[in-house]
Amino acid sequence: MATETPLDIFFAPEGTTFSQFKVLPVVADGKTYQLRYPLVTAEELTALITQLHQAQAEVLAPLSVTALVAKLGQAVAYWTDPSYPLRQLAERLLPAITGYNAETVRLELKRFVRVFRKKELQRFLETELDQPAILDDFHPQKSGQLTRTYGPETAFQVFSGNIPGLQIWSLVMTTLVKASTLGKTSLSEPLFPVLFIRSLVQVDPRLAACFAILPWKGGTKSLETVAARQTEATIVYGSDQAATSIGQLVPLDHRFLHYGHKISFAMIGREALTSDHYLTTIKQVADDITIYDQQSCLSAQTIVVEAGGAVTPLMVAQLLAAELENAQLKRPRAQLTQAEAAALIRFRSENDLAALADSQLKVFASKQSTAWTVVYHGQPGFAGSPLNRTVHIFQIPHLEQAPTYLTAYRPYLQSCGLAVGPERLLRLAARLGQVGVGRICALGEMTRAQAGWHHDGQFNLLDLLRFVDIEHQAELAAEPFDPDVE
Amino acid sequence: MPSHRSYNYHPSFAIWDASMKYPFKHYVMPDCDRMTIIGLFPSLSRYVTKAVEYFGDSNSQILVNEQGLLYPEIVAALKAAVVEKRPVMLLGASFSCVHLFDYLAQHHCQFRLPAGSRVFDTGGFKGQSRTVAQQDLLTAIADKLGISRDYYLNMYGMTEICSQCYDQNLQNIASKQPVKYRKQAPAWVRVQILDPDRLTPVPFGQTGLVAYYDLANWNSCVGILTEDLGIADETGFEILGRVSGAAAKGCSISIDQLVAAQTHKE
User: Fold this and answer.
1) CATH topology assigned to domain B14-180
2) Same structural domain, A257 and A269
3) Contacts of B246 in chain A (CB under 8 A)
């Protein structure tokens, strides 16, 4: 007999009431979990936000940023312990909810939470604020004035569901600036932010009043209008359409941040394809494609390979194909929906047909499944892929020519995994930065952004803050009113 | 998605005509040799023209032009059929039926067409802005024309191949068999439902992509992998609709948006 375990996949302050719930059964390790979430109404949401405002003033606002770093750091520290029960629960349930390979989820979750350890949180703060203490008090600036900064009181955050855990990036940032959070999760991954808040509440039970995290169907105007109007900041992860539709609901004087859909790619110089380096290079590229099946905006969709190495670009395509076949045995790709599989079949058919007329085009594909596809192009170029371990390889005589092919994709470019020698690194990075790339990283690390990264070229904290200055003259003018002054 | 118009070039129409004629007779007209056909599909369509030529009586006509359906003429033709107790076949795509029913509703028109009348829906809302559920269509057909489900027939075909497949209900009725609604293929056509991931046949009752093998398409491509979802059992197969565009669930930008970005640039 399989046991049934109820589990709430939402978080709401104590005393919150919901009139209706829905239950979603998920089977993991032979156990059925009944995932429960509320079908929230606009009235309930309004009450929730009022409560979050109040809790922000009472709990978060008086806390020093140092205290907040310590509390968040402690919650993250729990997650670095393999025997932590919530981590074990996440490792069990997330593969079942998302379909991702369990081993990948276990490894990547462990790596991801480390980005938010105490010392990393300090890195985030001090990268953007010379004096993080201005989040607590007025502090003198070099210009002479006294400055303090305030985050929003409440932040409405629309999380995406593609990558387990990713939601806590913005959750941690808004908490650092003392905002309470209304988080809208996606049912494709509603779990991690809820578990993380439970850890935070373990550290300090008073913080429970400052978070509400729950799913609803994206685009529900009645709810999103309430959420966008009654909070001071709205942060949306998702497509341009989703952002536009929510952005229209945000009053002009409120903060609105959007992290949209992006495309990432890799560039391999001939120096990374010498006989002693090529194998490592290929394995790293395979990692950048297999981790979370390219659903992350940081994953490589195109690999630009320079000719002239010990291994030719065509051989890179063949070696990568072999490596993706190995990966399928070790960490199989998620099961696809019929629509996703059909998109891959169409992509393959189109390229197979094109290859009949183009000797420069070659398609390498897994047999009897859509597990992986490598399309080799014998000339320079750039293209998006239908994801799910599908990648283009473009051969190019010199990597320096690559930026020319990127300009059409400028608004969407994000990370470039770059494997070149030190003397080319900065030169190429400068060209890539010019055409819109926002992050240069090592191969094999593409899907793992580091603490302090300028997320999509923007700030993590500064964009949430407003600053208040006391001019030096005001300070001087106050002096005579001190009765003790001579 | 950019719309894409398909072409299929035929060196001669002999095979095409033969592959159209006999299954049409078998599945659409099993109970009579000729009847009044009212074509609601543009006359440019060879299929409709040939249907009228082979199987239409002298009252048959195509009542659509470049401007659209000729509503008053259609109503007059239906009225005449009722008066003369002459069964009619309305032949058109799903969306032409929808427009006709809108018109009939607006003008408070309702018919009880003579026994044996039928609606032959050549299928498809491709490229049309409006779709209706099949159940709504069937209800409207019963309500506006007095034609029951058993006398409604749907076809599956496409430009890329020659031969069509049909619902079997009229054939069942004519041969006094229990009525079933799934589609059957002519002897020279095989339809297989394939697992979209492995492209191998799935067992009966499981959905998958429709693969269509048509020997009449000898001049171009005998086997076609469609993007239609279907399901089959011992009695035949059913089309469940187009596989929906795979929406990117990730924050990775989808290929469609990229194509759009590039087209915009050019």
Assistant:
1) Rossmann fold (3.40.50)
2) no
3) 337, 339-340, 342-343, 386
